[in-house]
Design a protein that fits this description.
The protein is of the alpha/beta class. The chain has helices spanning 2-13, 21-25, 105-112, 139-155, 171-180, 199-207, 223-226, 247-257, 276-280, 282-294, and strands spanning 27-28, 58-67, 70-79, 90-94, 98-99, 121-126, 163-168, 189-193, 234-239, 263-268. The protein has an 8-stranded mixed β-sheet with strand order 2-3-6-4-7-8-9-10, sandwiched between helices. It has a two-stranded parallel ribbon with strand order 1-5. The radius of gyration is 19 Å and the shape is globular.
């Protein structure tokens, strides 16, 4: 009876494009302006006042993203001094599937304050269709959006040996792809938090039945394959109790497939999908990332 119900449920998905995995994967919200430090809505991470970023170090940037002729204006935030990008180490942070940059504001602030107050430059983007960014979210569009950010950093003097890629959840796709297939700059290191292995495995986890991934989605995202091409040092962290992207079917697969120069695995007991820095402990999280970047 259970299997019959599953079949009927899955068959109903094919009748509604709004229930396809590719549309559900991008849970974007739009805004007319970004609140940043004025954002008092709930976020995944709470930080005290010591993490506040001075207004002079907050920069909202429109960028032109070109996906094989499909152009869109996307928005980015840069936390740091624009005049020192040519000498700073910069973390390029790709956020998760939901909402927009405001929801991840505390995460970017946290990264900016690893190693000291406003120690690293941090850049983050809203993919097409997220926040104030124009266009519609797509897989190839996301990669083009990532390249637009990298191009901007290069134009300000950043070199690849000072570029750290950081992908969380959905953002793991952009971070991994642009590390494995570099464009304007070749990143120095890759950090993934709660990554997924592939769109196909997401379908298998969600469907409970052995149906082809193409039945649900036309996404080709495959971090488990892209990581095989990555030679840069790799830092992976994942909550053992992740109830969205299983550490077993996703994170462990990505880590196992890495065959580059150096890797670290951090399996965080009791952590779920969104709370790795909190459950691990903010100080532990910062210390581990700092040591990895400096090694």
């Amino acid at each position: 009876m259970y299997k019959i119900c599953c079949v009927l449920f899955i068959a109903s998905l094919s009748l509604s494009s709004c229930l396809r995995l590719d549309s559900n994967l991008f849970r974007n919200t739009t805004v007319t302006n970004y609140l940043m430090e004025a954002n008092h809505a709930p976020q995944e991470i709470s930080l005290d006042a010591s993490y506040k970023i001075p207004d002079s170090l907050i920069h909202l940037l429109p960028l032109t993203s070109d996906d094989n002729g499909d152009q869109a204006t996307i928005y980015a935030e840069y936390l740091g001094r624009l005049t020192s990008i040519a000498t700073d180490t910069v973390i390029l942070y790709f956020h998760g599937t939901r909402d927009n940059m405001d929801y991840y504001w505390n995460r970017t602030k946290l990264l900016a304050n690893i190693g000291g107050k406003n120690h690293f430059g941090v850049m983050t983007i809203d993919y097409r269709g997220y926040g104030m960014s124009g266009g519609k979210p797509t897989e190839t569009g996301m990669y083009a959006d990532a390249e637009a950010a990298i191009n901007w950093l290069k134009s300000k003097g950043l070199t690849g040996n000072r570029l750290i890629m950081y992908g969380f959840s959905l953002g793991s796709a952009a971070a991994t792809y642009k590390t494995a297939n570099p464009g304007a700059l070749t990143p120095a290191k890759l950090i993934l938090e709660s990554p997924f292995a592939s769109a196909a495995i997401m379908v298998q986890d969600a469907a409970l039945l052995a149906l082809p991934a193409s039945y649900f989605t036309n996404l080709k995202i495959d971090n488990a394959q892209e990581i095989k091409k990555t030679q840069q040092p790799f830092f992976w962290m994942h909550g053992i109790n992740d109830d969205f992207l299983s550490i077993t079917t996703h994170g462990e697969v990505v880590f196992k497939n890495y065959a580059g120069t150096y890797s670290e695995a951090h399996r965080i007991p009791l952590a779920t999908h969104t709370d790795v820095p909190i459950v691990w402990g903010i100080d532990n999280y910062k210390a581990a990332i700092l040591a990895f970047i400096r090694r």
